Amino acid sequence: MKHASGPNPMKTDALPTRASMATGQLVLDGIDYDERATMRAWESFLSDEPTCARDPVHVRSLIHDSWYRSATGGINAQGIEAPLSSDRDEIEYLTRANAELLSAARRSFVSLGQLLEGTGAMLVLADSDGVLIDAIGDKKTLHDGMDIHLGIGGKWNEDAVGTNGIGTALWTGEPIFVHAAEHFCAGIKSWTCAGAPIRDPLDGKIIGVVDLSGYSPIFRPHNTALVAATARQIEKALAEQQQEQRTRLLEAFISSAPSYRRKDGLVIVDHRGRAIFCNNVPNGDATEMMDGPMEPGRGRWLMNLPASGSDTDLANALPAHLRSCHVTPLKLDGDLRGAALVFPSVPAVSSVTVIRREENKHLRTAAAMIVGDSEKLLAAIDVASRVAASNGVTSLLIEGETGVGKELFARLVHAGSRRTENDPFIAMNCGAITKELFGSELFGHVAGAFTGASRDGKPGIFELANGGVLSLDEIGELPLEIQPFLLRVLEERVVHRIGDSRGRPVDVRLVASTNRDLKQEVAAGRFRSDLYYRIGAVSIHVPALRERGDDVLLLIEHFNRQIAKLAGNDPLEFSNDALDALLAYRWPGNVRELKNLVERLHILARGGTIELQDLPGEISAGNRDAMVMHGDHPAAMLEAPVCSFEDAERQAIKNALVAEGGNLSKVALRLGISRPTLYRKLGQYGIRRGFL
User: What positions does the domain Sigma-54 factor interaction occupy (predicted)?
Assistant: First the structure.
């Protein structure tokens, strides 16, 4: 490829748009690249709303979609460089955190690095966040790359620098190239790059990207194939490393567990808490742990391994549904590198009993994930549980504001609906799908159904959810022209892929959720009334957090302990004034806002106790005006007559509050109850914490 000279645009006969993940074979799009036309399209895109129609000739849909994400994400189109971290401690942390990836890439990078000198190209390795952790290649290009922070510590995901080979490969999950004017930021349009994601062989998650970059003249159609092949080599090296670790962990278990019996269940987890070996696990535990049978070579996350590796800490780190097992730390070269979970064999029980017990256990576990005991919340949980247990309800509408936890109710329905261990739960956010892709995502397509269609065809989410639950979040965002087809599938229980006349029967329970008033949407003509009445035959309203009273305190306690446990810290304490302010706040962001606040407090708190001034201004300011002392005098309360058990309990709480000066932690300790129980008792008896 050559730079344009004079008025002649730069062109190439065929530019690759995708490389096969399995073989690295290049798929060509058959389009010309016109530098000036692409720049005009970019300038037009920036001058108009980001939703402007894509240029079908000069801008690939992959690039247009990435431009849209970049613009709506607030990326500065005139930017000249990526963010860069030069902090040595942070770079050292990145190196340690990605030691396995760096080790697996070393052989490929060493061999390719020797060949790139003098070519004008550089090869870089980025982690799952798009941060560069290694770079080799032509020395001049490496030097010039630092002008745009294309070096170790540079952050190249789309959220940081818009459309580019690294960030866009992370987003799409496929090998791609971004050439010259196709970049979103003006400062990097003289570069060309081809990136390919690297997936963990154990669980398939993207853990990094390998990218070939340089000034635009280095572009060749096979650059994408080169990085795709390099990524596969790195994945192969990772698989070899993991197989070696698996063997060593099994050997460590054999030498440390002489009492293990062949009929006992056994799961070996690696240092990340993922199952790498599973044998003879009882049905109930297998269902809980893996959400279905383990596929060969595909890991399931089970637990967080503590840093200390002590038996006590390991036992405490086990999730509740795994507490019946015996856990043994497995060390390699003196470091904790995994654990063995042994499930003692149990007497056989009838299959009917097992199925019923498993259904109830799944339902109880899912219900326990919804924290709170307010009347409105419990009523919503009850309806969801009854829908889950009923075979006659095939669709359900969940309504509620953003952040109230609607997906937890969808998972509750799935948990109570499961007939086998393999019943799927498929979730799709209708607000995150472009209008053009809705039909393909919902119903699938056959090979060649439309431009860009998969060569082998693709099942839609209805087929993927067959036998289980399909959760459609933000159903109000569903385009009006797609709604009749969704209604037809719900009525006929048959799905037709795009381009295919053959119907495929599906047995799917639909759980639709929305934060809109669908009745108003129907009245405005934006949502079909027949579809609304079809999905809304049974509906659940999830109450806003401001309607749930003291559930705020239960959720604070829940998230406080959860976040502290993950971080290995002690839970925070909250002063009375802080708790009063949190109770008085309206919580426009609901449970999600509350969780984010607790996470923020754990990060920013200067001490172990949260005072009123530690809270955000919109929360603390609202409480200062409402802080009025209760008119009752403590001495008078201590003299109140005791007529019943409830009176005695109420008086005991008041006495403890007086004795401990209103410190709720000390009051709970004095009474021998937990803080959540104390909160419930305060609400039950109408005792205000400010009565002192």
Answer: 370-603
The three-class DSSP label of residue 171 is helix
The Cβ-side half-sphere exposure at 630, using a 13 Å CA radius, reads 12
Q: Which residues pair with 267 in a beta bridge?
A: 278, 341
Tokens 């449970």, residue?
A: 591
| Spatial separation of the C-alpha atoms in residues 471 and 396, rounded to whole Å | 10
What is the structure's pLDDT at 286? 39
Question: Cβ contacts of residue 116 below 8 Å, gap of 6+?
Answer: 122, 123, 136, 137, 138
> Do 533 and 390 contact (CB within 8 A), yes or no?
no
- Output the DSSP codes for 534-592: HHTSSEEEPPPGGGSTTHHHHHHHHHHHHHHHHHT-PPPEE-HHHHHHHHHS--TTHHH
CB 135 within 8 A of CB 145: yes
Could you give the 3-state DSSP secondary structure of residue 399?
strand
Instruction: Quick: pLDDT tens for 349-403.
Output: 333 333 344 456 677 777 888 888 888 999 999 888 888 877 777 889 999 999 9
Residue 447 in contact with residue 457, Cβ under 8 Å? yes
* pTM strictly above 0.85: no
Residues with Cβ within 8 Å of residue 136, at least 6 apart in sequence: 109, 112, 113, 116, 122, 123, 124, 142
Yes or no: say if 470 and 429 are a contact pair by the CB < 8 Å rule: no
Phi, psi of 303, rounded to the nearest 5 degrees: -165, 165
pLDDT at residue number 540: 92
State residue 432's pLDDT score.
82
d(CA 128, CA 230): 17
CA distances from 226 to 23, 25, 152 (A): 12, 10, 21
> Which of 374, 349, 368, 307 is CA-nearest to residue 547?
374
Contact (CB, 8 A) for 318 and 312: no
Q: How many CB atoms lie within 10 A of CB 631?
A: 7
Q: How far apart are CA 73 and CA 71, in angstroms?
A: 5
Distances (CA, A) of 7 to 32, 43, 126, 473: 16, 19, 38, 50
Considering Cα of 543, then 546, then 550, then 556, what sign does the dihedral take?
Answer: positive
578, two tokens? 């802080």
Q: How far apart (Å, rounded) are the C-alpha atoms in residues 127 and 125?
A: 7
H or E segment at 144? Answer: helix 139-145
| Cα 645 from chain centre | 48
Which residues of the chain fall below pLDDT 50?
Answer: 1-31, 50-56, 282-298, 346-358, 625-642, 690-692
Q: First-to-last CA distance in the chain?
A: 80
Amino acid at 209: V
